[in-house]
Amino acid sequence: MTTTHNKRLLWQLPFLTLLIIGTVLIIRQQHSMPYQKCSGTIFGTTYHITYQYDHDLQPEIEAKMLEVDNALSMFNKKSLISLVNNNQPVQLNDMFVEVFQLAQQVSDDTDGAFDITVAPLVNAWGFGFKNEQMPDAHAVDSLKAIIGYKKVQLDGRRIKKSDPRMMLDCSAIAKGYGTDVVARLLADRGITNYMVEIGGEVVTHGISEKRVPWKIGVTKPTDDPLGAGNELQTVLNLTDKAMATSGNYRNFYYKGNRKYAHTINPKTGYPVQHNILSATVLTNRCVRADAYATAFMVMGFEGARQVLERNPDLMAYIIYDDKGETKVWYSPSLQDKIAK
User: Fold this and answer.
1) What is the mean pLDDT of the chain?
2) 3-state DSSP assignment of residue 281
3) C-alpha dihedral over 79, 82, 88, 94, to 10 degrees?
4) What is the DSSP string of 50-98?
5) What CA–CA distance (Å, rounded) separates 101 from 229?
6) Rg of the Cα atoms in the chain
7) 95, 67 in Cβ contact below 8 A?
8) pLDDT tens digits for 140-159?
9) Contact in structure between 280 and 316 (CB atoms under 8 Å)
């Protein structure tokens, strides 16, 4: 028995040695492989992408982002969503269908707080691609008649509207989806360490070039229409997660002594007026984080907490105003991600 056992060990030793050597070589290769960086503009905003790979993938990355733009950008007159809004017959692609279906799911879950048919109201209040004057109560009521996610539906590869004046607006979900698409491209190339950021929406995987978890800042929500400020409220250790933030501190204007921000409540027809300053959502897909962050800005603090209770995959970091004092609430599961 002892002799047989020893012979087995002798046969296993070469394999164990090869396994150890292979592991060491892989680790060395991972340490020596450079981190690529690329940046630019897309979807009317900027992007910054860092990934560990042996050559530059920027042309492929930009091609993927352009696919998303050609499907979902209202500012692209030839995009699928522009054709839908202009009531032109068009066969929708997989990207459009995927985003539309997810948007409807989030709308159902948030009782319509998230609604991609809100575009006419966004435009009327001066935050869309048309700069209308501030609407009066009659105009708001008239526009509400053509607002409502249940008034549009997917029929095969086409969109059916209950009213041809209805318009779709994916600006509160497209950046998150685009971030996911780029992350998926990198993962398909076998890349395990990357950070994709498009307009503040982020997906991370693995570790940074400093060999530590990716550190992503949450911006302090101070009025900053030019986006020049970079003061952070906190920093999160973000690994293998997606993150999106919605806030009313960048896109707003004052009329009289009142502030009007770009987040429109689809039910009232008016810009939201509550105490949430910004909502940051973390989950496994940036497209979901993006949509829910917007919904939370519409729903307010208590509504957001109710959604979080029934969606355990979601975590949130909410900054709100309490009688003139800025306060923070975050999901208990987020505690270990807050950088010390």
Assistant:
1) 87
2) strand
3) 50
4) EEE-SS--HHHHHHHHHHHHHHH-TT-TTSHHHHHHTT------HHHHH
5) 35
6) 24
7) yes
8) 899 999 999 999 999 999 99
9) yes
- Would you say 234 and 318 are in contact if contact means Cβ atoms under 8 Å apart? no
Residue pLDDT, tens place only, 187-242: 999 999 999 999 999 999 999 999 999 999 998 887 555 455 568 989 999 999 99
List, in order, residues 6 or more apart from 70 with CB less than 8 Å away.
76, 78, 79, 80
Q: What is the DSSP letter of 253?
A: E
Q: Residue 204: its pLDDT value, please?
A: 98
DSSP H or E segment with residue 309: helix 301-310
What is the rounded average pLDDT of the residues 168-191?
A: 97
| Residue among 107, 86, 88 nearest 153 (CA) | 107
pLDDT above 80 (res 41): yes
Closest CA to 276 of 261, 291, 258: 261
**Which two three-digit tokens encode residue 53?**
């790979």
Q: Are 176 and 289 in contact (CB under 8 A)?
A: yes
Structural tokens at position 315: 């975590």
Q: What CA–CA distance (Å, rounded) separates 59 from 226? A: 29
Q: Report helix, strand or coil for 260.
A: strand
* Side chain identity at residue 43, one-letter code: F
Q: Which of 206, 278, 271, 207 is nearest to 244 (CA)?
A: 278
- State the pLDDT at residue 224: 53
| DSSP assignment of 198-255 | ETTEEEEES--TTSS-EEEEEE-----TT-----EEEEEEESS-EEEEEESSSSEEEE
Q: How far apart are CA 165 and CA 144, in angstroms?
A: 11
- DSSP class of residue 170 equals -
Residue 59, amino acid: P
**What whole-number percentage of the chain has pLDDT above 90?**
67
- Span 247-273, pLDDT tens digits: 866 554 445 555 555 688 899 988 887
